[in-house]
């Protein structure tokens, strides 16, 4: 008399379907990761509690009245780029510190950032310490 069951369950587990899913996810993330990173301006943002380590070459300030100042010297918006080029000529790592008051439209700050990007200047956005 044979009492053993005919339906024997195997305790083995096949990982082939799991590895297929892992490889598909890996391919998906590799293809979509370049889309996630946008092309942006190279900004160096200082921490609010610490000091900046960059040497200040030129400071650009924008007031609430939309007046531009380069190192405490008032400059028109149209002459801003030529003034920055003359002050930063010959510097090894030209750096601009951008100080924009609260309430200044973002377009004015982006104008200065665009000038820095076109001329390969580094730009630091000044913040008020906490």
TrEMBL record:
The primary location reported for this protein is membrane
Query: In Gene Ontology terms, what is a biological process of this protein?
Result: protein transport
Gene Ontology cellular component? plasma membrane
Query: What Gene Ontology molecular function terms does this protein carry?
Result: transmembrane transporter activity
The record, for Pfam families, names:
ExbD
What membrane topology does the UniProt entry give? Single-pass membrane protein; Single-pass type II membrane protein
Query: Per the record's keyword annotation, is Transport included, yes or no?
Result: yes
Record bears the keyword Repeat: no
Against Gene3D superfamilies, the record matches this protein to: 3.30.420.270
Q: Where in the cell is it found?
A: Cell membrane
Keywords of the record:
Cell membrane, Membrane, Protein transport, Transmembrane, Transmembrane helix, Transport
Which family is annotated?
Belongs to the ExbD/TolR family.
Quote the protein name from its UniProt record: Outer membrane transport energization protein ExbD
Q: Source species, please?
A: Salegentibacter echinorum
């Amino acid at each position: 008399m044979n009492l053993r069951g005919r339906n024997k369950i195997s305790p083995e587990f096949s990982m082939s379907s799991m590895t297929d899913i892992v490889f598909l996810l890996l391919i998906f993330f590799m293809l979509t990761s370049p889309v996630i990173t946008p092309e942006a301006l190279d900004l160096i943002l200082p921490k609010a509690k610490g000091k900046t380590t960059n040497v200040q070459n030129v400071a650009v300030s924008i007031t609430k009245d939309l007046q531009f100042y380069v190192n405490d010297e008032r400059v028109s918006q149209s002459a801003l780029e030529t003034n920055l080029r003359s002050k930063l000529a010959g510097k090894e790592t030209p750096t601009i510190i951008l100080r924009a008051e609260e309430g200044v439209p973002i377009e004015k700050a982006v104008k200065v950032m665009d000038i820095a990007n076109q001329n390969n200047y580094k730009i630091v956005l000044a913040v008020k310490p906490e």
